[in-house]
């Protein structure tokens, strides 16, 4: 069909995707293993899921993680969107270089440094480590990811839409909420989802900044992994993967349906209906 | 007549009220000030604190370091405190070969892994960029999807595969390729695999966007002028994808240098990586000043690549604008 | 000697039965999935010819060019170049070069390196490459820009680099895909003549794809009009304009009035065509149209005269109407005349003098007149 889509290209994409997915698939399969070993198949069983749900420690940790993720993702989305607007719209203000540096650096900053520095800040200002400090830490690093996602959408945003709104009498704030925001909303939503999963996933920063009573799920999983690999962990991981995968797939399906609807509308319009 | 009706219906330009004017003026500044302050307080100030603590003395207390600054003592106290600053922690880092070796081996492991990730990622990105256009969004989503699942889980999955009695060895022995199980887990090889696996999407995405953006007629022009496909790749495609290569390599290299989870779970006890050293210094030895000094040096090590990364990002924004 | 149009041609190998065609498309078909881009097409192009493929976008003209360059292979049929079947020969081994619509200049190379690129592939000696590059730069008048990168050049300069790069290898045939499409109107007109001069100077065969009829008319020796993967007519610009072979060609090139009707009688090569609403005209150039068949009388606006007084020449067609619209264009004026049966005919008058003695205005009674041989009768 396409001369450029050569066997070599097909093979490299296929192998690349296999490499990315095989370990995850294996992990999921062995969560249903009857045996305690995660390397030898001994028949299908869901007993590890049952024992997982009777593990109070894990359930509590999951609840903490979920609350941290929801709160931090929401605040990070607001801050990250503001940062993205600043980066794309205000090209000239004092300290812009420092600002863009502070937005981009956390994307690549080793987590141990971010975690350590935030912990020392909390100690210095006398904030007790716990739920609040983990949330603050997660807001800080995930807002930068949101900023990058939203910024890339803002760069392709047609500014004449805003100019039209102002020409028709809408002041800047109204213009933002009635014109800009609806257009960049998909990017903001995917920014929120990214922030949510980043928070859900984080081990290192949470380990530094959380205190007693605010153990997150990754911390719990990590401490159990250090003791050895068990199907129960596989089961916990499978549930996490399933939640994230369902979320992402649902979002992309909604997107796709909207896209198809748009194409259909455009075709109708073309035909003059 | 209709002209007069219109003129009457439309008011002459009116000035907004004082209240709304102040609000509109504030709006522009607030957009900048809120995220700016947040990042200053939670990103920049903490670094200053790390730097400060790296210069103070270790104490067995909570917090386990002697405070360097405290404004309660006034100006005299401040001078007194300045005199107490010491570079002892840094001297300690130079005295113990452990730290130096950890830095060197982190950089080496990160560099080798980055090259491996590039070798694995380039064909994947190239294949995606040449795929039929209708497939590309799906392929892109498939590459990003694993990134949405927990990093910890993805690293954990490899333990069961790489163990001496793990699935890889079972498979290789099953097909008769090897007799003795390969020892991969708890070696640097396992760390390479872990880093390549975890960071592959970070390499593929910038490469893909550089390759996808490239005008295919350039390749056709090269062929038309007598250049066979492989040579056209090296003369046209490869140099033009260079910005993507730089971005991808930095996105892998910088965080890999300070990586903790991968060396901790997949590497052995003799694996030296600075992220792990810092973690142990902090959690096991509870030596906050030394771990701060370790962090400061790590940051200095990464300052150049981070600045290059930030510059290339800023340039990309300028080009898209 | 009578001839169509205003140009007498000495170069016309297509009229010579002994001339050997240089490029031959033989029953070529190209399908992409369900879509047929080129449908059983045959075409002959002669050496040193400036040949244009003209058509709307999606008519298959670019596919034809890409098959000649070797980027696409025909699904069926074959393409011969100088007697050699091109099937299976990859683009980098074909003695043809292409000038791309986007120019496809390598952004990471200087002008010089771009021009030298193809020569290096041949393994030409370094000194010879330098000499040839200098020659090419001189040809396109870009000597001062040798060290620049493509993004430091204007659109017209880029076009010339692209040309220099594609002719540097002295190809047997140069393919040009919308060569002037990216230039503005004024520059395009200048460049058209430059290209024609360069083609003369280099003695090459040019095959150019364009959707701009004026460009094709100006530059080409012959034009192939394409529609839906098929060639509708291959002829010189004058033939295409004055003797179109079908309604499609007549309507595609230039402005035309199409008077539809049936042949009600023919004698001595003159036919009577009635439109069934009381309009009857005399027409020559009737070809093989039989009495009673449905035809269109196609006539260009500039061949219709408009006047307020009825002309008294009995040999010409005279129809009464009313001035419906006037477009004053400076060099000429176009009148839209509504006839009694409601159809509107366009007639253009050259404003050869500054003052007219027969001024017409909206709603005036007017007479249009044209000779029976001023148009052609089309059956297809």
From TrEMBL, chain A:
Q: Show the Gene3D superfamilies listed in the entry.
A: MetI-like
- In which family does this protein belong, per the annotation? Belongs to the binding-protein-dependent transport system permease family. CysTW subfamily.
Coiled-coil regions listed in the entry: none
**Statement: the UniProt record of this protein carries the keyword Transport:** yes
One record GO biological process: transmembrane transport
Q: Where is the ABC transmembrane type-1 domain?
A: 62-252
* Any one cellular-component term (Gene Ontology): plasma membrane
- TM regions (residue ranges): 12-32, 61-85, 97-125, 131-155, 176-198, 233-254
Q: Which Pfam families match?
A: BPD_transp_1
Q: Which InterPro entries match?
A: Bact_Polyamine_Transport, MetI-like, MetI-like_sf
Location in the cell reads:
Cell membrane
Q: Record's SUPFAM superfamilies?
A: MetI-like
* Membrane topology annotation: Multi-pass membrane protein
- Organism lineage string: Bacteria, Pseudomonadati, Pseudomonadota, Alphaproteobacteria, Hyphomicrobiales
Name-wise, this protein is ABC transporter permease subunit
Q: Give the superkingdom in one word.
A: Bacteria
Q: Which CDD domains match?
A: TM_PBP2
For this UniProt record, give its keywords in alphabetical order, as a comma-separated list.
Answer: Cell membrane, Membrane, Transmembrane, Transmembrane helix, Transport
TrEMBL record, chain B:
Q: What is its main location?
A: membrane
Q: Where in the cell is it found?
A: Cell membrane
User: What highest taxon heads this organism's lineage?
Assistant: Bacteria
Instruction: Say if the entry is tagged with keyword Cell membrane.
Output: yes
UniProt membrane topology term: Multi-pass membrane protein
Q: Which residues form the ABC transmembrane type-1 domain?
A: 103-309
Segments spanning the bilayer are 30-55, 102-126, 138-159, 189-211, 232-257, 288-309
Which keywords appear in this protein's UniProt record, sorted alphabetically? Cell membrane, Membrane, Transmembrane, Transmembrane helix, Transport
Q: What Pfam family does this protein match (any one)?
A: BPD_transp_1
Q: Which InterPro entries match?
A: MetI-like, MetI-like_sf
Q: List GO BP terms, alphabetically.
A: transmembrane transport
One GO cellular-component annotation of the UniProt record comes to:
plasma membrane
Q: Of which family is this protein a member?
A: Belongs to the binding-protein-dependent transport system permease family. CysTW subfamily.
Q: What is this protein called?
A: ABC transporter permease subunit
What species does this protein belong to?
Borborobacter arsenicus
UniProtKB/TrEMBL annotation, chain C:
**Record InterPro entries:** AAA+_ATPase, ABC_SmlMolc_Importer, ABC_transporter-like_ATP-bd, ABC_transporter-like_CS, Mo/tungstate-bd_C_term_dom, P-loop_NTPase, PotA-like, Transp-assoc_OB_typ2
- Name assigned to this protein: Spermidine/putrescine import ATP-binding protein PotA
Task: Supply the SUPFAM superfamilies for this chain.
Answer: MOP-like, P-loop containing nucleoside triphosphate hydrolases
* Its job: Part of the ABC transporter complex PotABCD involved in spermidine/putrescine import. Responsible for energy coupling to the transport system.
Q: Which ranges carry the ABC transporter domain?
A: 23-253
Q: What is its EC number?
A: 7.6.2.11
Q: What class of enzyme is it?
A: translocase
Give the organism the record lists. Answer: Borborobacter arsenicus
Q: Which UniProt keywords apply?
A: ATP-binding, Cell inner membrane, Cell membrane, Membrane, Nucleotide-binding, Translocase, Transport
Q: Which reaction does it catalyse?
A: ATP + H2O + polyamine-[polyamine-binding protein]Side 1 = ADP + phosphate + polyamineSide 2 + [polyamine-binding protein]Side 1
Looking at the keywords, is Ribonucleoprotein present?
Answer: no
How does the record describe its quaternary structure? The complex is composed of two ATP-binding proteins (PotA), two transmembrane proteins (PotB and PotC) and a solute-binding protein (PotD).
Q: Name one GO molecular function term.
A: ABC-type polyamine transporter activity
PANTHER family, from UniProt?
PUTRESCINE TRANSPORT ATP-BINDING PROTEIN POTG, SPERMIDINE/PUTRESCINE IMPORT ATP-BINDING PROTEIN POTA
Query: Family per UniProt?
Result: Belongs to the ABC transporter superfamily. Spermidine/putrescine importer (TC 3.A.1.11.1) family.
Q: Which GO terms describe its biological process?
A: putrescine transport
Q: Which GO terms describe its cellular component?
A: ATP-binding cassette (ABC) transporter complex
Q: Which domain of life is it from?
A: Bacteria
């Amino acid at each position: 069909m396409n001369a450029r889509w050569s066997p070599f290209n097909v093979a490299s994409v296929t192998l690349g995707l296999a490499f990315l997915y095989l370990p995850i698939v294996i992990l999921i399969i062995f969560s249903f293993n009857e045996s305690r070993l995660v390397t030898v198949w001994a028949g299908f069983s869901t007993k590890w899921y049952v024992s997982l749900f009777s593990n109070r420690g894990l359930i509590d940790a999951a609840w903490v993680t979920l609350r941290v993720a929801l709160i931090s993702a929401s605040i990070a989305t607001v801050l990250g969107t503001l940062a993205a607007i600043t980066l794309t719209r205000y090209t000239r203000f004092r300290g812009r270089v420092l600002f863009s540096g502070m937005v981009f650096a956390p994307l690549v900053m080793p987590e141990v440094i971010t975690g350590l520095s935030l912990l020392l800040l909390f100690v210095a200002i006398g904030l007790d480590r716990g739920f609040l400090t983990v949330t603050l830490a997660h807001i800080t690093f995930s807002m930068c990811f949101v900023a990058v996602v939203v910024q890339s959408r803002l760069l392709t945003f047609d500014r004449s839409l805003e100019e039209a709104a102002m020409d028709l009498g809408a002041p800047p704030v109204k213009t933002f909420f009635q014109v800009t925001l609806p257009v960049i909303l998909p990017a903001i939503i995917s920014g929120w989802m990214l922030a949510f999963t980043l928070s859900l996933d984080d081990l290192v920063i949470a380990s530094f900044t959380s205190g007693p009573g605010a153990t997150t799920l990754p911390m719990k999983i990590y401490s159990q992994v250090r003791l050895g690999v068990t199907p129960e962990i596989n089961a916990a991981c499978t549930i996490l993967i399933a939640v994230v995968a369902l979320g992402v797939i649902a979002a992309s399906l909604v997107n796709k349906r909207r896209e198809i609807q748009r194409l259909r509308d455009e075709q109708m319009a073309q035909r003059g209906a | 007549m209709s002209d007069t009706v219109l003129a009457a219906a439309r008011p002459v330009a009116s000035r907004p009220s004082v209240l709304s004017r102040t609000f509109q003026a504030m709006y522009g500044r607030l957009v900048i000030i809120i995220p700016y302050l947040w990042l200053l307080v939670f990103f920049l100030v903490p670094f200053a604190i790390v730097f400060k603590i790296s210069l103070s003395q270790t104490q067995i207390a909570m917090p386990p370091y002697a405070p360097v600054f405290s404004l309660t003592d006034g100006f005299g106290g401040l001078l007194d405190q300045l005199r107490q600053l010491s570079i002892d922690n840094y001297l300690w880092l130079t005295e113990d070969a452990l730290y130096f070796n950890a830095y060197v081996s982190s950089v080496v492991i990160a560099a080798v892994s980055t090259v491996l990730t590039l070798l694995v990622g380039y064909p994947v990105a190239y294949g995606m960029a040449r795929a039929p256009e209708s497939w590309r969004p799906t392929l892109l989503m498939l590459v990003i999807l694993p990134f949405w699942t927990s990093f910890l889980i993805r690293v954990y999955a490899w333990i069961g595969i790489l163990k001496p009695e793990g699935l890889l060895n079972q498979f290789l022995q099953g097909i008769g390729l090897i007799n003795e199980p390969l020892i991969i887990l708890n070696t640097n090889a396992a760390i390479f695999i872990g880093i390549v696996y975890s960071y592959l999407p970070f390499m593929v995405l910038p490469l893909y966007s550089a390759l996808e953006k490239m005008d295919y007629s350039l390749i056709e022009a090269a062929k038309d002028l007598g250049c066979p496909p492989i040579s056209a790749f090296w003369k046209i495609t490869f140099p033009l994808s260079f910005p993507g290569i730089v971005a991808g390599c930095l996105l892998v290299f910088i965080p890999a240098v300070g990586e903790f989870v991968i060396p901790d779970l997949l590497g052995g006890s003799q694996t030296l990586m600075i992220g792990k050293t810092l973690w142990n210094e902090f959690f096991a030895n509870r030596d906050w000043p030394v771990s701060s000094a370790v962090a400061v040096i790590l940051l200095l090590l990464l300052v150049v690549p981070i600045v290059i990364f930030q510059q290339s990002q800023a340039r990309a924004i300028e080009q898209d604008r | 000697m009578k001839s169509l149009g205003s140009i007498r041609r000495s170069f016309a190998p297509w009229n010579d039965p002994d001339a050997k065609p240089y490029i031959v498309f033989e029953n070529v078909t190209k399908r992409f999935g369900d879509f047929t881009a080129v449908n059983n097409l045959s075409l002959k192009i002669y050496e040193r010819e400036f040949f244009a493929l003209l058509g709307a976008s999606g008519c298959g003209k670019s596919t034809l060019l890409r098959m000649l360059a070797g980027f696409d292979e025909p699904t069926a049929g074959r393409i011969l170049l100088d007697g050699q079947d091109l099937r299976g020969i990859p683009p980098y081994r074909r003695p043809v070069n292409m000038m791309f619509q986007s120019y496809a200049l390598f952004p990471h190379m200087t002008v010089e390196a771009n021009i030298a690129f193809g020569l290096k592939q041949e393994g030409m000696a370094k000194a010879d490459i330098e000499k040839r590059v200098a020659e090419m730069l001189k040809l396109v008048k870009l000597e001062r820009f040798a060290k620049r990168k493509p993004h430091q050049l204007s659109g017209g300069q880029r076009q010339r680099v692209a040309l220099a790069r594609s002719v540097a290898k002295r190809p047997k045939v140069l393919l040009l895909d919308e060569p002037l499409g990216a230039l503005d109107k004024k520059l395009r007109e200048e460049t058209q003549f430059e290209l024609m001069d360069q083609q003369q100077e280099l003695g090459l065969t040019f095959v150019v794809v364009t959707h701009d009829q004026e460009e094709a008319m100006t530059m080409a020796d012959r034009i192939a009009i394409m529609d839906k993967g098929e060639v509708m007519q291959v002829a010189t610009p004058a033939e295409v304009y004055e003797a179109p072979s079908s309604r499609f060609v007549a309507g595609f090139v230039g402005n035309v009035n199409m008077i539809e009707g049936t042949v009600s009688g023919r004698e001595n090569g003159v036919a009577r065509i009635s439109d069934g609403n009381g309009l009857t005209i005399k027409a020559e150039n009737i070809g093989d149209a039989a009495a009673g068949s449905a035809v269109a009388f196609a006539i260009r606006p500039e061949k219709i005269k408009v006047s307020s007084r009825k002309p008294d020449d009995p040999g010409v067609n005279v129809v009464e109407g009313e001035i419906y619209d006037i477009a004053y264009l400076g060099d000429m004026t176009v009148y839209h005349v509504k006839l009694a049966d409601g159809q509107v005919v366009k007639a253009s008058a050259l404003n050869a003098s500054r003052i007219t003695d027969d001024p017409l205005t909206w709603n005036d009674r007017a007479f249009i007149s044209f000779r029976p041989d001023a148009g052609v009768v089309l059956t297809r």
